[in-house]
């Protein structure tokens, strides 16, 4: 272990997303983690092959995680973004793959000295697969400086897409897969042809995506008021959110999703699918519906009722207060220091 200089922590942040397709939430969480740790001078960050640290903090669970973690016995932190249920509706034959997925994720969780559970559902999943590692509940933070309302970005991105200012734009964000509710998004678009619909996101798994043929046929039938933007970079997303008027987030399974928080920070109302995991995760109210008719009814009201839209924007502002990045940073730094304390090894953290 490298000695800390003047009590300065050296954190080795590891993520295989740096070498993969990067238009996904896990990569955003990795970038946010690095930026957050570097925001103050009490922590030095090294990334992947840049060097070694006092403690390792990983965001992915592939061979790279196990390899890099060999030198960090007792000092491995792993943020759990993926649970077994995450593959349902993402990969084909998920039910057949589930025993292997549970076995592999149990090994990934158990390899860590501490697993960070980003939601109550994630904590339950870590326990359910039989991993006995220590668990800390720390949510994904939201960078309100990066995602902020901007009339300039709104006008520029709408001009780029040829969207008139008076158009009411419904945005969807996520991978093009069944789990993300793409088909329901398209069904809502069919029901509301007077609104404009945009979807930002692609397919990190390519042809291995569950139902890729079915989804492609469904997308091909979409009307001219629906646009698929493809995979976009993190740098593009503030403009995408600003160009919209509401985020529709019809995903069937999530843990602590970043897209709704990013949209809310940008000033958008957010319409969620009514899922049990959200009821356990969020401490403040949020807009939700159970199905396509419910989504359509909320969007119609948001598009036609300025007072309801203002109320929904206030709900978004309150929602993100739970995910203050400086509070999350304090929790992370405290956890790192706890792992490095003389009494940490062999203790119940």
Describe the fold and architecture.
Strand 4, helix 3 (94-111) and strand 5 form a beta-alpha-beta unit. The protein starts with 8 loop residues before the first strand and ends in a 9-residue tail after the last helix. It has two domains: 9-141 and 324-340, Rossmann fold (3-Layer(aba) Sandwich); 151-322, Rossmann fold (3-Layer(aba) Sandwich), CATH 3.40.50.2000. The radius of gyration is 21 Å and the shape is globular. The strands form two sheets. Strands 2-1-3-4-5-6 form a six-stranded parallel β-sheet, with helices on both faces. It has a six-stranded parallel β-sheet with strand order 9-8-7-10-11-12, with helices on both faces. The chain contains 13 helices and twelve strands. Helix 5 (151-161) crosses helix 8 (237-243). The protein has helices at 25-37, 63-69, 94-111, 120-128, 151-161, 182-191, 212-220, 237-243, 258-265, 276-281, 292-304, 306-319, 325-340; strands at residues 9-14, 43-47, 55-58, 76-80, 114-117, 134-137, 169-173, 196-200, 226-230, 246-249, 270-273, 287-289. Helices cover 40% and strands 15% of the residues. With 349 residues, it is an alpha/beta fold.
């Amino acid at each position: 272990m490298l000695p800390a200089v003047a009590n300065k922590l050296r954190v080795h942040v590891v993520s295989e997303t740096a070498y993969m397709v990067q238009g996904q939430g896990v990569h955003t969480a990795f970038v946010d983690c690095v930026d957050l740790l570097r925001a103050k001078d009490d922590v030095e960050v090294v990334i992947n092959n840049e060097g070694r640290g006092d403690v390792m903090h990983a965001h992915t669970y592939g061979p790279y995680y196990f390899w890099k973690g060999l030198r960090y016995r007792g000092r491995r932190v792993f943020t759990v973004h993926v649970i077994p249920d995450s593959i349902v509706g993402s990969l084909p034959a998920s039910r057949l793959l589930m025993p292997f997925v549970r076995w592999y994720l149990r090994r990934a969780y158990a390899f860590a000295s501490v697993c960070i559970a980003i939601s109550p559902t994630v904590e339950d999943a870590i326990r359910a697969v039989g991993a006995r590692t220590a668990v800390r509940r720390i949510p994904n933070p939201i960078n309100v400086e990066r995602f902020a309302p901007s009339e300039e970005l709104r006008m520029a991105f709408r001009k780029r897409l040829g969207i008139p200012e008076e158009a009411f734009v419904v945005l969807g964000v996520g991978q093009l897969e069944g789990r993300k509710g793409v088909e329901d998004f398209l069904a809502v678009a069919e029901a509301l042809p007077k609104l404009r619909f945009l979807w930002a996101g692609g397919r990190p798994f390519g042809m291995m995506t569950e139902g890729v043929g079915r989804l492609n046929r469904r997308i091909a039938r979409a009307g001219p008021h629906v646009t698929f933007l493809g995979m976009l970079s993190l740098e593009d997303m503030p403009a995408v959110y600003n160009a919209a008027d509401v985020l529709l987030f019809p995903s069937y399974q999530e843990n602590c999703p970043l897209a709704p928080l990013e949209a809310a920070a940008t000033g958008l109302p957010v319409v969620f699918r009514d899922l049990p995991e959200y009821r356990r995760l969020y401490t403040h109210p949020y807009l939700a519906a159970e199905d396509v008719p419910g989504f359509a009814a909320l969007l119609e009201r948001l598009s036609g009722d300025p007072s309801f839209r203002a109320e929904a924007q206030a709900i978004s502002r309150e929602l993100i207060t739970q995910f203050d990045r400086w509070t999350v940073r304090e929790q992370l730094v405290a956890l790192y220091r706890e792992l490095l304390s003389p009494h940490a090894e062999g203790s119940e953290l």
